[in-house]
Design a protein that fits this description.
The protein has about 300 residues and is of the alpha/beta class. The chain folds into 2 domains: about 110 residues, no CATH class; about 160 residues, Nucleotidyltransferase, domain 5, CATH 3.30.420.10. The protein is about 50% helix and about 10% strand. The chain has 11 helices and 5 strands. Helix 4 packs across helix 5, helix 5 packs across helix 6 and helix 7 packs parallel to helix 8.
Amino acid sequence: MVTDESRYIKRKLYVLNYAKQVGDVKKACRYFGIARSTFYEWRNQYKNGGEEGLARKKTGSVNHPKRTPKPVEDLILYLRKTYHFGPDRIAMFLGRYHQIKISGSGVRWVLVRYGMNRLPQNTRKPSPGPKAKLYEKQVPGHHIQMDVKFLSFINKDNKRIKRYQYTAIDDATRIRVMKIYKRHTQKNAIDFMNHVIKKLPFRIKMVRTDNGHEFQARFHWHLLDLGINHVYIKPGSPKLNGKVERSHRTDEQEFYKFLEYTDDANLNDQLDVWEKYYNLHRPHSSHKGFTSYEVLKAKLENKAVECQS
């Protein structure tokens, strides 16, 4: 019978064997997201006690009143392994969808206890570099950021194909609209803009883009004809469109990583499901755990109260 303890020991053995195969402890630790001190501790445990030596050490009472319950620990480890969520986001999900109250630091201690407090190298946040001045508009539709994410898939003929995800995000609420095209053109950018106008539940005052060829003259004049102001960011300054850039990283980590490409129709259907989840159900750390549409509702209610007063 496979138990949690046997899986725990199996994972340690897998890490030890992988390090032996590649002949590089540092590389193995980066790959599995563990500290080298943890690896050497596991290696010494195995050297001194075999597989039994890799079992969890009971350092205190299992039923300690302040210890996180085992079912909650299992949920925390599942979210960490499956989605690579950080401690604060795990705490938000547990509170929102499981009615479990736990702090981000409480989640962090659970991850440390199981040696999962470090993410694999390819999922860690890159160094932010010089800190940019942050801003946030308060009125929905006042400022829309737009950009294109380049995609690459292997089709059923085992050939690599390119696709382009056009994305628009509202600065005030983080509500997003997404659509995938086969070509990267101004015509598709104009079509996407019309799509955005139909989907967003508020009027758009301004759109901000980079200087890509898809956002040049035809696109620019199309927006002005619609009564929407179009502003270009400073060349070489993607942080000025930071919210849409960050949302593309979320797409990569939480959507495309688990996607199996079959055809374009299925791809856009799945993207539509992801878009609805992102807007209606996904809690945002920037909004203290609230979803995009909950933020929109709150802003509209506050505006209604101001108008009545």
